[in-house]
Amino acid sequence: MDRSPITRRVFLAAAVLAPVFLYPTKAFAASSAEPTPACGAGTATPPQTEGPFFKPRSPERKSLVEPGVQGAAIVVEGRVLSTGCRPVAGALVDFWQADASGAYDNSGFKLRGHQFTDGAGRYRLETIVPGLYPGRTRHFHVRVQAPDRPVLTTQLYFPGEPGNRRDGIFNPRLLLELRDSDQAKTGRFDFLLDLG
Ligand code: FE
Q1: Neighbour-count burial of 84, counting CB atoms closer than 10 A to its CB (0-12 exposed, 13-18 middle, 19+ buried)
Q2: The pTM is what?
Q3: Distance between CA 121 and CA 53 in Å, rounded?
Q4: pLDDT above 50 for 25
Q5: How far is the CA of 104 from the centre of ligand 1 (A)?
Q6: Cα 130 to middle of ligand 1, angstroms
Q7: pLDDT per residue over 93-141, tens digit each?
């Protein structure tokens, strides 16, 4: 495979990203809608156990905040990309999570929802920070599926969470890139799918 297009992409990505590192606070507002160029390594997002609480047929929605859902607001956003950095449009992104007290809704669909990436491979979910429950660190569950391709089931984690060190499932490659401002908490993550 000719690697030069990827190399050029990474170079351009680094040039775009440089001001973010230099001026993190100022750049946040300006860059929040821009893609995170994190796909250069070419390594697929690792799968993780589904756990016991997945439910099929979650509602299609981009916000899990509804009456009865309380907790610290967070936006989880990013892109679905191939390991070759190509955006995947129309990919399924299906989240499920515990509520602020650490409980899953297994009778209904609270804090469960799926959506499809836009033409640039982007997804964006408004939700709350999941609570803790015994034996696990703080996490989101998610299934990601490019059209007509296998499902990637994995989990996303919070940086600086004390429980990360004690959780045998935790994987630092699945850490959200967390931004916290007065207005909003945002966690970014790009899913990289090995699409051959
Ligand atoms: Fe869980």
Answers
A1: middle
A2: 0.80
A3: 27
A4: no
A5: 8
A6: 9
A7: 999 999 999 999 999 999 999 999 999 999 999 999 999 999 999 999 9
Separation of CA 3 and ligand 1 centre (Å): 38
The rounded Å distance from CA 32 to ligand 1 centre is: 27
- At 166, the amino acid letter reads R
CA of 103 to the centre of ligand 1 (A): 9
Banded model confidence at residue 29, pLDDT cuts 50, 70, 90: very low
- What's the CA angle centered on 46, arms 42 and 49, to 5 degrees? 170
Round the average pLDDT of the chain to a whole number and report it.
86
> What is the SS3 string spanning the chain?
CCCHHHHHHHHHHHHHHHHHHHCHHHHHHHHCCCCCCCCCCCCCCCCCCCCCCCCCCCCECCECCCCCCCCCEEEEEEEEEECCCCECCCCEEEEECCCCCCCCCCCCCCCEEEEECCCCCEEEEEEECCCCCCCCCCEEEEEEECCCCCCEEEEEECCCCHHHHHCCCCCHHHECEEEECCCCEEEECCEEECCC
Task: State pLDDT tens for residues 143-152.
Answer: 999 999 999 9
